[in-house]
Design a protein that fits this description.
The chain is built from 9 helices and 10 strands. By secondary structure, it is of the alpha/beta class. Strands 1, 2, 3, 4, 5, 6, 7, 8, 9 and 10 form a 10-stranded mixed beta sheet that branches. β5, α4 and β6 form a beta-alpha-beta unit. The longest helix has 14 residues.
Length: 260
């Protein structure tokens, strides 16, 4: 793995980068058709044989690792309140499916342990840690411990903000880390290299052919987020990206099939 400050250059773009086929990354599972970050969304993504599943982690009040994107349960459940103010038992009592469709009534939120049991070892895992200044020092060691216990070192990577990634590297320097950014910045690639990233997850607006070539020069994998429109998928692929995050992995497969 890259060490912090390693300004490495690639003479060729191999390994996990620039694969012959674009990596299909199921954003929060197959979240366009199923409740995001839930067992059914992950299971349906696995059925499509996606290359990677992305999911999000927040910390509950009783220090449990909850799979949810938002800081509150309001949007994706029949409850309300901050994840950090609720216990696991309170969160587990919520309905995390019927907000999307009545047929998903009874779907529940998951813990990291449950997700790893369901999909660990079956596909590559893109684990987006959602931390804040008040819980970063608590959440990250818990995630690291759970992933080590589940022997996930080689089949996952951590995606987050730079402060979180630096702490992850301090605790577990062998893990691959991914820098998220939605704001174009000339220093994004340099900053990512400086903290030891091997993967970039830029917002679509940041991505053009020049950006991807620059990243590949430094052996950085580029997986932009996210594209649900086929035209945007095609644009990103034409830029030379390594993978695309999408809520509709079936659509991305259709686009890739059209290329063959």
């Amino acid at each position: 793995p890259a060490k912090a400050g390693d300004q490495r250059l690639c003479t060729s773009h191999e390994g996990p980068f620039n694969m012959k086929s674009i990596q299909v990354v199921a954003h929060r599972g197959f979240s366009g058709e199923y409740p995001e970050n839930t067992a059914i969304a992950f299971e349906e993504a696995l059925k499509l044989e996606v290359d990677m599943i992305e999911f999000d982690i927040h910390l509950s009040r009783d220090h449990e690792l909850i799979i949810i994107h938002d800081a509150t349960v309001d949007r994706t459940s029949n409850g309300s309140g901050s994840v950090g103010d609720m216990t696991l038992s309170e969160i587990k009592r919520l309905d995390a499916g019927s907000w999307m469709d009545a047929r998903f009534k009874g779907v529940s939120f998951l813990t990291l342990e449950e997700v790893l049991h369901q999909i660990g070892g079956k596909t590559r895992l893109n684990i987006h840690i959602k931390t804040y200044d008040h819980d970063r020092d608590i959440l990250i060691p818990l995630v690291v411990k759970q992933l080590e216990t589940s022997d996930m070192l080689t089949s996952c990577f951590i995606a987050s903000d730079e402060a979180t990634l630096c702490l992850v590297r301090q605790i577990q320097p062998e893990w691959s880390i991914c820098n998220l950014s939605t704001r174009p910045s000339a220093s994004y690639i340099d900053r990512s290299l400086a903290i030891g990233c091997t993967i970039l997850q830029p917002g679509n607006a940041m991505v053009d052919e020049s950006f991807v070539k620059n990243a590949h020069t430094h052996c950085l994998e580029v997986n932009p987020f996210y594209a649900d429109d086929k035209a945007e998928m095609k644009r990103l692929i034409a830029c030379g990206v390594d993978g695309v995050l999408t809520n509709y992995p079936d659509r991305l497969y259709e686009v890739l099939d059209e290329r063959d």
